[in-house]
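Reopening: structure tokens for the S-adenosylmethionine complex, inputs below.
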Amino acid sequence: MKKVVGKFVGVGVGPGDPELITVKAVKVLKTADVISIPKAHENKPSLALSIVKDVLKERKNAPEVLELVFPMTNDKDELERLWCENAHIVAGEAKKGKTIAFITLGDPMFYSTFIYLCKKMQQEHPEVELQIIPGVTSLTACAAVSKIPLAEKNEVVAVLTSGVAEEKISEIAKHASSLVFMKGAKQLKSLVPVLEKSGFTKNSTVAIVRRCTLPQQDVLVGKLSDVKDWDIHDDYFSISMIKQKTKENLK
Ligand SMILES: C[S@@+](CC[C@H](N)C(=O)[O-])C[C@H]1O[C@@H](n2cnc3c(N)ncnc32)[C@H](O)[C@@H]1O
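Re-run output (same inputs, fresh job):
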């Protein structure tokens, strides 16, 4: 039987509003020995940390803070090296018998840096107990604040990122009732003709939500034909949603 040492917990902290942190996440944040924070680079403030700061302030004993840098690079070798290195650091702490809570925006298993670290921990350090606490994802939070249902009855929702090629978007759009684009909304303007050719109509409902549930939240809701006139902010923390093929849209 493998010997279990320490614990690594992926904690989804929700999309921004601290009231959207789950009760289970709060429990872990209040008891973990180490709070681990993913960062794109050392000097960048962590949005995930700012979401949980009040929960951490309520603790009698301050946790250790472990910043792990995951730079935004496409260099696969460099990424592999960093994931291994960061997994090694986490395992080192766990082997001291500590619980390490890795905080992550939204849900840990949905387009999150946590996923890579989690895989490395499973592969390289299986002796460390692994727990994952789901969080309110930005996807559903954006649907809630824009008051646009993501899916009804047997509708198909496709979730894409802004990096997906137009031909692929066009193919997917032909089969989906709704599309959601993560990782920025800026490219939506250039996609309007592609979407119109793939079954969406000028009347399809569109929403762009920036910094959902945060004080800077901005929600734009309209029709696909409005998008060309919108001033779309180039903010990474944005999601765009397009809903088509409902009877109402096709009128
Ligand atoms: C690396 S993914 C993380 C997704 C996260 N795990 C989740 O479940 O929401 C980052 C993308 O999530 C979306 N996102 C995260 N938080 C957001 C927010 N508060 N408002 C709008 N979009 C957000 C943006 O599209 C951003 O580019």
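The domain at 138-250 is CATH 3.30.950.10 (Methyltransferase, Cobalt-precorrin-4 Transmethylase; Domain 2). The mean pLDDT is 93. Marking as resolved unless the reporter disagrees.
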